[in-house]
Amino acid sequence: MEFEVLKPDILEGRVALVTGSSRGLGRGIALGLARHGADLVLTSRKLDLNRELAEEIRAMGRRALPLATDIMKVEEIFATVDKAVEEYGAIDILVNNAGTNPIRCNAVDVEEWSWDKIFDTNLKGLFFFSQAVARHMIGRGKGKIINISSAAGAAGSPLASVYGATKAGVNQLTRTLALELAPHHINVNALGPSFFEVGLSEYITKSPELTEAIVARTPLGRMGKVDELAEAVAYLASDAADYITGQVIYIDGGWAA
Questions:
Q1: For residues 228 and 194, is the Cβ–Cβ distance under 8 A?
Q2: Strand locations in the chain, DSSP E?
Q3: Which residues carry out catalysis?
Q4: Going by DSSP bridges, is the β-strand pair 15-19/39-44 parallel, antiparallel, or unpaired?
Q5: Does domain 15-251 have CATH number 3.40.50.720?
Q6: Count of CB atoms within 10 A of residue 225's CB?
Q7: In 3-state terms, what secondary structure has residue 60?
Q8: Tens of pLDDT along 36-58?
Q9: Residue 148 forms beta bridges with which residues?
Q10: 199-220 b/e with 16+ CB inside 10 Å = b?
Q11: Cys-Cys with 68: which of 47, 116, 194, 251 at CB 3.0–4.6 Å?
């Protein structure tokens, strides 16, 4: 399902770097930005999938640079940003989408390895990608940073205590970065999806019982579609959102309400 709510060329000539772009929400976001005219830098650990996505984007008439980046390694983050700037000359948009949640268990059963992996991916990686790109954007006097948070960052999340904590951290970091970067005309916002048909919600879609329970709990009566999130990202990345910064917007079908 594709949407044409925004003008197709609203991001014409801009360069967007999307983390965790190889599949799920990140893949959908990258395609959505390309639909609206952006050239893409695609980053994740899965270079083969990024290469396939790059071919799709090039077929749309846009440029695409696929890169392999382990977001838990700061030196790889800096190298990725340097490579993107070297290739395109600028990064106009950063979408911090990469995230993980390898466990579903009560807090009393969480092991240290899972805490470290979730925090290093969801919060540490997001912070240092933002830092590296912001240093570049400050020199240009403009830019858009969009963090993909979660509805789990706004309320208690049984069986996802560590994941929820990282997403709450993303929300707070979004507000702080927005304040620090506002003098440089850099907007920083976050989108908080709830349950979508792809990405980390795939464990739900594989279970009819879980899907039914989630749909029943959601006021709009369905799970989200990736293009709905992609359009929200494109809006925040565009000039139309120049007066929006420091906000966490929930794309959740009314879940938080």
A1: no
A2: 15-19, 39-44, 64-68, 93-96, 143-148, 186-193, 248-251
A3: 163
A4: parallel
A5: yes
A6: 16
A7: coil
A8: 999 999 999 999 999 999 999 99
A9: 191
A10: bbbeebeeeeeebeebeeebee
A11: 47
